[in-house]
Amino acid sequence: MPRFARRLKKHEGTLRVEAFSDGVFAIAATLLVVDLKPPRGAMTGAQLVDALVAEWPTYVSYAMSFLYLGIIWAHHHAVYRLLKRTDQVFLTINILFLMVIAVLPFPTAILGEYLGERGERHRIATLVYTGTLFVTALLFNALWLWGKHERRLIDDDLDERVIRATTRHYLVAPIAYALAFVVAWWAPVAAVIIVLAMALFYLLPSELLQSYEHREPRAHADIAPDASRA
Amino acid sequence: MPRFARRLKKHEGTLRVEAFSDGVFAIAATLLVVDLKPPRGAMTGAQLVDALVAEWPTYVSYAMSFLYLGIIWAHHHAVYRLLKRTDQVFLTINILFLMVIAVLPFPTAILGEYLGERGERHRIATLVYTGTLFVTALLFNALWLWGKHERRLIDDDLDERVIRATTRHYLVAPIAYALAFVVAWWAPVAAVIIVLAMALFYLLPSELLQSYEHREPRAHADIAPDASRA
Amino acid sequence: MPRFARRLKKHEGTLRVEAFSDGVFAIAATLLVVDLKPPRGAMTGAQLVDALVAEWPTYVSYAMSFLYLGIIWAHHHAVYRLLKRTDQVFLTINILFLMVIAVLPFPTAILGEYLGERGERHRIATLVYTGTLFVTALLFNALWLWGKHERRLIDDDLDERVIRATTRHYLVAPIAYALAFVVAWWAPVAAVIIVLAMALFYLLPSELLQSYEHREPRAHADIAPDASRA
Amino acid sequence: MPRFARRLKKHEGTLRVEAFSDGVFAIAATLLVVDLKPPRGAMTGAQLVDALVAEWPTYVSYAMSFLYLGIIWAHHHAVYRLLKRTDQVFLTINILFLMVIAVLPFPTAILGEYLGERGERHRIATLVYTGTLFVTALLFNALWLWGKHERRLIDDDLDERVIRATTRHYLVAPIAYALAFVVAWWAPVAAVIIVLAMALFYLLPSELLQSYEHREPRAHADIAPDASRA
Question: Looking at the complex, does the CB of residue B28 fall below 8 Å from at least one CB of chain C?
Fold first, then answer.
């Protein structure tokens, strides 16, 4: 089978899984905003401004979760780019992963409700939130580890060093969110800072993402076997 | 027409139907979470934890329905992979099928409301829920039976044994959900266990899904007629 | 330019417009269900059943609107299949059309609220609902008439008779919904029956949809210029 | 690499980003309608009509925001057509851009709540609304400026004049929305008129959109290298 056909086939094989996943990501991200309701009962303009400002914990939670979803969506996409096919176990892990992604508006709403205060309820909201992120990171790693184990689902000519770098890169997330979960018992604000730091970490150019650049020339060759024929 | 072009054509023919279906699946799955609201009125941390724990029937209903939607989505996808084209009756059944899929958040919310108690209301909620799953399974089978009857819409070179295995595999669902519906009159918990068992059944590797593996070599040949030319 | 490349180009040209449209259709259809809420306050099982049964006008409105959206989506898809490109006016009409599609959950909820009673409010709800369908049908016709006028956006080799049949076929809708709107003043139930009859009319095999079958052979030739080369 | 393969590759490279973006646009647009609720408590038909008419500010806000989202979606699409690839900074700006797009139902609901009155609250609602549009326009320009700077992400053979015209065309938006924001302090209605005027401006055929027409012949050549071979 020529490389072009193989590529199209691969594309077809994962296309609808990716479409379904994209849908869940996009909807979960957009549903976050459903909790933002225009304040009612504000009599004067000053009261309206106060009411809007008082909702800041909801805005922070919304922004943090949207950023988180955007970034994990990008990495979900990156993993799919390395796959040559999927199997049933992978699809099952993917469903469980999406289940936790879709549930994220719930812990986000809880955090938005209690982020603005100090005390017990703030701590519990942060524990629920970081706990959810931890489970998401675990399932994301399960997806990758299942796919890369003995090159089960990944491209044959993918460099072993890229695989190892990817594995290391993604293992940071569950460790950091577990840390945030533990820290949340004593210092919920510190836990939130860890979550934001992780967002920055996965946004920064990394070994993993550099490897994509390096792959480009190979990819070119991959789909252009006809060039030699022209 | 070369096989590659035929494949692209087929792809085009069902692409938007699949996109619309994927959208409905993804949104229905994500809307399930809209019923999860942060508890209000909890004064202390302990009360908040209690209120969160007390919502467990909602979590169970959510997880069960999300899993159900994920699995039936995967099988909907599997059926489309076997199709070479669609017709008007198929599209009409597909709309009715999606109508019931989209309504699922409603029985899920009813079940989440009453799953945690014993008695009449629990039984009625379970009847509504299993009844909806039964109708979904009926319409799914109608889709497949219409498509496979006299090979109306399916690939010409699809093995007759694969068709028969698929038919048998999917007929299990309406029978099991009808059973769950009947059982729900006496033992709602047993009905819920049947629903979860069906999820496992359709997740396990099956004759049907193995057949996909077997088809791969054929598929390779299918889109690589150029290989002989190269 | 070979026909295959032209086809791919066309596909690319309308792909994202169709994806955006599909998204709006799928979400509007799925949001219809947001109005279905589990009844609260039912003390006994019998009361719960009564409360569920009492919501029948909501179920009827939901089913009618979902069916309507599914069918108009299919015909929107059919029109795009006849297009070879889009232009700015077409895209603008498409945005206005989608705006009314996305608003449909609102008149559906109004109808669901008052369909079960007799009198003034029922009549007004039916007027709002049929009025919305009338505007949708007008914009749908505007889309088609703009595209087909002097073959502005449609395939060059599309049979003139197919174009005329399509125009006639789609003109039935605004006329019927205008009729339903007028009838709603005296007999709201008759207006609802007209809406359901239109759904059946657009589901039945028609001259327009038969023409697609006839086009198939041409389409085969269209994307298979390589056949002569093989 | 032949041009056809390059085109397919480009397509693949931005496909899922566009799918995710389309999803967010479509859902944000459709969620706008969630604020439209059937009026309750209307005793008579006349009261129902009054209640429906009294919601006009919500309808105006909905229509304005839907139109806005439809137009900015179309231009987002137009920018992606000029891209040959994406990079990490571009994706990050895109996530921030989509974050503000997804939040739009919130300022829309605020505007819908207070558009119908005169005074402080109306002014504040208009400030929040135009402020959000201003941020959206800034991020949209950031996307384009990052991509076009030193032709970082855009097609190599894109005419320099097209790039300059595009830059000028998109710079109008943040300036106009900044103006609307300032004007909103004294005359909120004038600010709303500026927003509507901008919608018209971006709907009108422009130098930018004409350039697409001019590009068509080049695009033809681009994907039809085989023509010379046939």
Answer: yes
CA geometry: angle A29, A33, A36, nearest 5 deg: 160
Q: For the whole model, what pTM was predicted?
A: 0.84
| DSSP conformational letter for B36 | -
Query: For chains A and D, what is the number of CB pairs under 8 angstroms?
Result: 109
Residue B85 DSSP label: -
DSSP calls for A54-70? HTHHHHHHHHHHHHHHH
Alpha helices in C115-183 (DSSP H): 120-148, 160-183
> Are C112 and C61 contacting, i.e. CB atoms less than 8 angstroms apart?
yes
Residue with tokens 């004064």: B43
Task: Tell me the two tokens of residue C173.
Answer: 């809708």
Q: Say which of A18, A40, A224 has its CB closest to residue D16.
A: A18
Structure-token pair, residue A77: 């996409």
Contact C7, C83 (CB under 8 A): no
Instruction: For chain D, say whether C218 makes contact (Cβ under 8 Å).
Output: no
Maximum separation of any 2 CA atoms in chain D, in Å: 76
| DSSP secondary structure code for residue C184 in this structure | T
Burial per residue of C138-148, b for 16 or more beta-carbon CB atoms within 10 angstroms, e otherwise: bbbbbbbebbb
Q: Which residues of C touch B120 (CB under 8 A)?
A: 44-46, 48
* DSSP 8-state class, residue B40: -
Tokens representing B79 are: 């059926």
Condensed to tens digits (0 to 9), the pLDDT of residues D173-222 reads: 999 999 999 999 999 999 999 999 998 888 876 545 444 443 333 333 33
Amino acid at B30: T
CB count within 10 Å of CB B135 equals 17
Contact C21, C76 (CB under 8 A): yes
Give the HSE-up count for residue A166: Cα atoms under 13 Å, Cβ half-sphere.
27
A97 CA to chain B: closest CA distance, Å?
11
Is residue D10 less than 8 Å (CB to CB) from chain A? no
Which H, E and C letters describe B180-202, residue by residue?
HHHHHHHCHHHHHHHHHHHHHHH
Is ipTM beyond 0.85? no
Determine the Cα angle at B8 with ends B5 and B13, to 5°. 125
Render pLDDT for C137-148 as a digit per residue (tens, 0 to 9). Answer: 999 999 999 998
CA distance D218 to chain A (A): 21
In this predicted structure, the answer to whether residue A40 has a pLDDT above a threshold of 60 is yes
Radius of gyration from C-alpha coordinates of chain B: 21
Residue pLDDT, tens place only, A199-210: 888 887 654 544
Segments in chain D forming alpha helices (H): 3-31, 45-54, 56-82, 88-103, 105-114, 120-148, 160-186, 188-203, 207-223
Evaluate whether B97 touches B136 at the Cβ level (below 8 Å): yes
- From the list A137, A138, A110, the residue with the least C-alpha distance to A126 is A110
Torsion, Cα B171 B172 B178 B183, to 10 degrees, reads 170
**How many other β-carbons are positioned within 10 Å of the β-carbon of residue A119?**
11
Task: Using the predicted structure, report yes or no on whether residue A225 has a pLDDT greater than 50.
Answer: no
Residues 67-106 in A contacting D (C-alpha not used; CB under 8 Å): 67, 70-71, 73-74, 77, 80
- Check if B3 contacts C (Cβ < 8 Å): no
CA distance B221 to chain A (A): 7
Spatial separation of the C-alpha atoms in residues C70 and B96, rounded to whole Å: 9
- Chain B residues whose beta carbon lies within 8 Å of the beta carbon of residue A19: 18-19, 22
Separation CA A107–CA B229 (nearest Å): 57
